[in-house]
Amino acid sequence: MKKFSLTAIARTQMRTAATASSGRSASTVFGGHEHTLRQTVMGLAAGTELKEHINPGEATVMVLSGRIRLSSGEQHWEGRTGDLLVMPSGTSQITALEESALLLSVAKTDRGVPSATS
Description:
It is a single chain. The chain has one domain: Jelly Rolls, CATH 2.60.120.10. It is mainly beta. The longest helix has 14 residues, at 6-19. The chain has one helix at 6-19; strands at 24-31, 37-44, 49-54, 57-65, 67-72, 75-80, 84-86, 91-96, 100-108. The chain has a five-stranded antiparallel beta sheet. A four-stranded antiparallel beta sheet has the order 3-8-5-6, with no helix packed on it. It is globular and about 35 Å long. This is Quercetin dioxygenase-like cupin family protein. It comes from Paeniglutamicibacter kerguelensis. Residues 41-91 form the Cupin type-2 domain.
């Protein structure tokens, strides 16, 4: 059994993001490449964008603090502290509308990943 304080981790990631040239910082709190489930706490400085990327499976974004915009194509959803956003399949992008901390949870599936025969 492991226990994490997401509040403390988020605070650390936001402090790091504020001074990083990229405007972001992240720490995987559970899982990794060898697991199906991966959970990452991210800190984003205001205005930082996580460029468009392909969703590798089923994913959610829990806004731990701040305010973000999740975009996929022409659709946009806004999330604030306490909101849980379900990532759409395909590609998406996240923009920090203000200093924000997120918990990104991804369960990798074969969906959306081209097979070796494609």
